[in-house]
């Protein structure tokens, strides 16, 4: 402006050079912006000369429960690899696997790896591995993704491709991993602008690209079922959904909606113009394996056929095949040739076993399943496994009771239990990671500041030869009797398997109340109209002082120097002696309140007041069940315990140890394990299509132990099922006691016939999940204990040992039952 003569008498004494060199700090601080990034002019001239890598996060977990996708892009060929992982910490082992495979495939060596500055790429193990392999590392600076532009652009392409595939196929977001794999497969076989219209696959391998196997993602497919998996009258093909390719098996991947599993197969007829899709809330199996099972084919695979869909509607997924009861067998090994125990859980197996149909009403018509009560957030056709549609009829198989609550049929189904995280990594990668992190921080702070459980000391303070026990967090979701979440807890525990007997601990035994004792107390309470209240003591294992010197490692997730350990002064969860220390501590407290342990059960405490009224306390670790004729005594006990511990007043007992307690208007008490049974059924894939059984075991069933007839997988599932059934029978279901005891004899070497018999018990529980033990009101019911006993010698064909059993009744229902083999063989 001065040079143009627009300003007079201004700028005198300033040269053009002075003006150019003038710096305004205020302007620099106020108007700073990022300069344009120059385009990269360099490209790798050889395969694996430069590889770009990044991690992509999906907002919705995939079919396998994983949410992360790690990508590797070869700069020379533009070949893309993508792997679904459950957490960023799996990037390094995934990189090792990818590197070994690709270097073997291409006979080339990775020279430069370009990544961002994420912690998954900066670990010591990752850095040392690259150094040992001679791999040069290049990093982008923080908050500058433009320096890793190739990887970021690939991530954008994957996201856009996945969105397009899901929208076109009408599949929910849980299919993101299958859609991503399909997109990568197609992208590697499409021409690229940077490759002079060549494809990445052809540039990398030098082979011509073929696309004969390409089909639209999400299209309908008729997949041929192997002859060994169906009978003569069964359909020979299943209608599934095409989801991609299994390169390891040279097969196609399909989603079977009837089983909610991803399957692989080869003999298929594709309907490229038919996209059946799935509802957005369709449940899927979140298993750790990416492929659930394989439909084999024992004949050479013909050429894949592609047809236009018929105008008429296609049939629904395979119907359960029916077999004649007259030709069925409960123990025949030819019922199913699959080695997968889950494959024996199909809904048709109950019919093949000649199991009875669903409980019938008086007019011999099938009971119509009652629809689940829908929540506000879910539509009326929701098939979510957390809202299982149960039979509406309330059964009592071994106790004749009336429906005391007219609203019983209208209540919403009890929710199933979902699995809790098993590791810190799973907890921090879950949707509730903030809640779990807060729970872990609160637990650690309470142990350090409130309970003075440990002190932080250097490793040099540990005496030579002492064991440093490892520690970890255990995660637990707290639920009420209906399965609703009431809170989440994180427990810092010691891994006591590292402790040494005689050095780190001595005595370990700690009693708990028996189920039969708890049932007796509840029966007495029902018969006499006593009050039954429940209380819970917080952090019970942190109250007792240790009698041995123990050190543990610092927990994961907290910023501790590597040379620090925790010196324990009080017991914590996981130590072998922790239970005994707590039991001695609470025993002293209860005795100071005037209670003493009974001679038959050391965790049942009794007290007789001045008016000769009895009061009882059942102790099961941190759970207290207080039975008393008057509320004043219950208040006295809880107030006395509150002076020593943190006590949660839970009021009238409703739920303890997986048992639901229901007090009727007339004072009677009903016990059931509805929620726990429901969780067990869900764990073994029993849903609303599973047929029920009227008896826990097929009458006249005789099983024998045949060495080597089962697989290790069947044995693992068998042991899990037997353990769950034992807990149910000990709690409130003595009607399955004999069946469970009989089947547990074959736990060492179960075969298919034994597993099918276990499934029969589960089918029975499926039909009678609401059965209850009912203890009635009235002193006449408890004038004496009624017991029954019997033995059977002829049924044991293997060892000729008698099977003995008894059951005792109190207040009109069972309080204790026992069944077992005799001590020695009997002969006549």
TrEMBL record:
Residues 41-208 form the Integrase catalytic domain. Residues 322-343, 363-386 are annotated as: Disordered. Keywords: DNA integration, DNA recombination, DNA-directed DNA polymerase, Endonuclease, Hydrolase, Magnesium, Metal-binding, Multifunctional enzyme, Nuclease, Nucleotidyltransferase, RNA-binding, RNA-directed DNA polymerase, Transferase, Transposition. The keyword DNA repair does not apply. It comes from the Eukaryota. The keyword Signal does not apply. This is BQ5605_C003g01982 protein. It comes from Microbotryum silenes-dioicae. The lineage of its organism: Eukaryota, Fungi, Dikarya, Basidiomycota, Pucciniomycotina.
